[in-house]
Model the fold of this input.
Amino acid sequence: MGSICKPESICSQLLDCCLSGEPWTEEMLRAVLDIDEGRAFLSIVVERLGDLFEPRLCDVYAELFTQAIRIVYPELIPRIRRAAVPGEAPSSADRVYILSRVTLGADIAVTSVLLDAAKKHWPGAEICFAGPRKNFELFEADPRIRHVPTPYPRSSSLRDRLEASAALEFTDGIVIDPDSRLTQLGLIRVCDDERYFFFDSRGYGGAELDRLPDVAARWVREILRVESAGPYIAPLPVEGPPADVTVSLGVGENASKRLSGDFERQLLRLLAETGASVLVDKGAGEEERARVEGALQPGMRTHEGAFAPFAAEIARSKLFVGYDSAGGHAASACGVRLISIANGFASERMLERWRPNGVVIRGDSPDVLGAVLRALLQ
Done:
């Protein structure tokens, strides 16, 4: 296989095999796993398989990732979980663990629905959010939710991420898994199977185009018999005057979500011309900070630091504007009017699954700024 020596083509070859149903070779997989300590495997192959939201690819993912574990971390193979259809959850429990999805937007759109349902189904149970601290802060003001610190090295090597999964084990209570990276999308067994309930966000709902919060709500009606669960946030309150408009230009490390050129400066100029007070999140990392500072207009306030306080600012604003990211999901969960710019989605189903409640403008539209202006005037 001569082309296997070209690193720039290996990931595409492996992904093409997965999508077409053709077999891949171990040589091909090993070559991909050697690129940047497995990061390319995760970002190019694994994320694409998930983002397509095609039920048939769930089995492909399980086969591929199991083989990757056998190569990178064979000690985990005895803990590979075989697919099973969960039955109804028990009516009583002392403790319930809800696993984080690791990304902030997913914990709002999906995990919070399961938290809400667990609180209602088990009113006397201790409800534990297992995940990173910054994610728990989205629910820190909820007296029913206790934090179980569960770090996950999201940007680290595949081996490091598998080590984090290997360290996770629950010896008591019910475990609800929202298709978490902590378990490598439900693949790693973290408790006895009879105590484990897995929401397969990629396969559940089939080929429908329902939003993820609605799909999760349907799942908890079936498994937990809770009829009214929905997404929510409960960050600690913030002080000071609220802004009329909150803005996030963050893209969650996915540069394809951005619009190129002078779009961001023009967007903030458009918002400044409304006369409304505007609060812009400077986000995470130097790259995003530089983009925000380069686009800011006179008189605009900025937020720096953790996301949860900014989510609290979104909750008390009148309008949120930004790329398809955690901020839009926070606004959607709080019932705040929003204008979300969606770009770089892998499939139409991905766009529909992650769609927040509000105005969604496709980034490939011929006049995005014009669409934003029309939405502002509505």
User: Anything to note?
Assistant: The first helix runs from residue 7 to 20. The mean pLDDT is 94. The chain has three domains: 2-78, 95-223, 245-377.
